Amino acid sequence: MRIDILTGVPELLHSPMNHSILKRASDKGLAEVLIHNIRDYSTDKHNKIDDYAFSGEAGMVMSIQPIDDALTKLKNEREYQEVIYTTPDGEPFNQKIANNLSTCKNLIFLCGHYKGIDQRIRDNLITREISIGDYVMTGGELAAAVMIDSIIRLIPGVLSDETSALTDSFQDGLLSPPVYTRPAEYKGWKVPEILLSGNAAKIEKWRFEQSLERTRRLRPDLLKEE
User: Fold this and answer.
1) CATH 1.10.1270.20 residue window(s) in the chain
2) Which of 55, 151, 177, 184 has the most CB atoms around it within 10 Å of its CB?
3) Closest CA to 135 of 107, 173, 93
4) What are 55-88's pLDDT values in tens digits?
5) Maximum Cα–Cα distance for the chain, whole Å?
6) Cβ neighbours of 206 (radius 10 Å)
7) Looking at domain 2-152, which of 3.20.20.140, 3.30.1360.120, 3.40.1280.10, 3.30.1330.10 is its CATH number?
8) Burial class (CB in 10 A: 0-12, 13-18, 19+), 182
9) Mind listing the pLDDT tens digit for each residue in 13-63?
10) What is the pTM of this model?
């Protein structure tokens, strides 16, 4: 998989893209993430990528020209399944979307900043708009990093234990059950006996019951969607 990120603040993305799971995916040749500075495509002599809104509203708006030129260059080089804009008013990101995007070969993420991007970009160049929550951030860079992490970890071979992602919360519409590790007892706090029994069938039944109970208690809205 190849992911291209268009941003006016590339420094915000260097650290999350070069550590942990994302670095492992890159080292294995399973995913490639390239960060592009939109300012490099600006025709303004000061490399500006924003201007005043026609409406007179407070705040600046990202200009159409540098974004269009950057997208045009990338799309002339390869075919992209999605051009994603990170925005608070997009569709809510969830595990189903992550699963779907993890099967793509090439993706573009456009990170908004200031008051957002010129609407004509959204109308003509963006194929999908996604939000990570009902709140506003300074820019779309961290939202893009969150989604890209969630997507890349699903690519076969990225995780050391490939079955791990299949048991994550939301994969089956439920929250994950509680997990424990050694020692079996610490300060009098004990691991549930069932997990020490070695009975795979009973353990699996316990895990499902725990997932269902946690979902009912913490996220009942997930069960209402079924």
Assistant:
1) 169-224
2) 151
3) 93
4) 788 889 999 999 999 999 999 999 999 999 999 9
5) 70
6) 16
7) 3.40.1280.10
8) exposed
9) 999 998 998 999 999 999 999 999 999 999 999 999 999 999 788 889 999
10) 0.87
- CA neighbor of 215 nearest in space, from 185, 175, 186, 180: 175
Strand (E) positions, the chain? Answer: 2-7, 32-37, 50-52, 60-62, 82-92, 106-111, 128-131, 185-186, 189-190
The Cα 91–Cα 82 span in angstroms is: 14
Structure tokens at 197: 């029994």
In DSSP notation, 203-222 reads: HHHHHHHHHHHHHHHH-HHH
The structure tokens 């992209």 sit at 80
Token code pair at residue 185? 């007892």
Q: Name the residue type at position 171.
A: Q
Bridge partners, 109 (sequence order) = 5, 84
Q: What are the C-alpha distances in Å from 21 to residues 15, 33, 143, 171? A: 12, 12, 17, 19
- The verdict on domain 169-224 having CATH code 1.10.1270.20 is yes
**And the tokens for 154?**
């699903």
Q: Phi then psi for 83, rounded to 5 degrees?
A: -115, 105
